Amino acid sequence: MQQPHLGVQSDEQGRTSTIDPTKHEDLSTLCQRLHARVSAFIAAKAPEQGYLRSTQEQTRVSLRVIEEALDRYRFVRLSPCNSHTNSEHEGRDKVNQISSLDQLSLSYNGGKDCLVLLVLFLASLHTKRLSSNRPLLQSVFILSAHPFAEVDDFVNDCIRVYSLDLARYAKPMKAAFEDYLNEKPNVKAILVGTRRTDPHGENLTHFDETDRGWPRFMRVHPVIDWHYAEIWTFIRHLEIPYCPLYDKGYTSLGGTTDTHPNPALKHDIDAKGNANEIKYRPAYELIEDNEERLGRDR
Question: Is the pTM of this model over 0.85?
Answer without folding.
Answer: yes
